[in-house]
Amino acid sequence: MSHTRWKTLRERKLAEGFTEPDDVAEARHEIRLSMALAEAVYARRTELGLTQTELADRAGLTQAKVSRIEGSDTVPTLPLLTKIARALDASLNIALDDEDTRVSFTPHGSNAA
């Protein structure tokens, strides 16, 4: 069964009045947040023309840690997010609403790459 078909099946069930258990809904929300962060880190890193290794060096992390963040495999702590934002020469913006999660980096000035 393809991912698209799963989504269609889920949407069909929700339209029929099916409600997800709270723990499933919470897990889905956490995954969306992690994916939004991963996408924002990747977008800013590639905008600067940096490799994962170069970003890791700037942030004082390992390349594997950067890879886990970009792969949504980990949820970084606030101090780690601060290191990443500094290394990307940007401010990290996170907007958390019930169904809308937005994560972006706002560059401080000229690209520091």
UniProtKB/TrEMBL annotation:
Pfam families hit by this protein: HTH_3
A GO term, aspect molecular function: DNA binding
CDD domains registered for this protein in UniProt: HTH_XRE
Superkingdom classification of source: Bacteria
Swiss-Prot/TrEMBL keywords: DNA-binding
Residues covered by the HTH cro/C1-type domain: 41-95
Statement: the UniProt record of this protein carries the keyword Plastid: no
Name by which UniProt lists this protein: DNA-binding protein
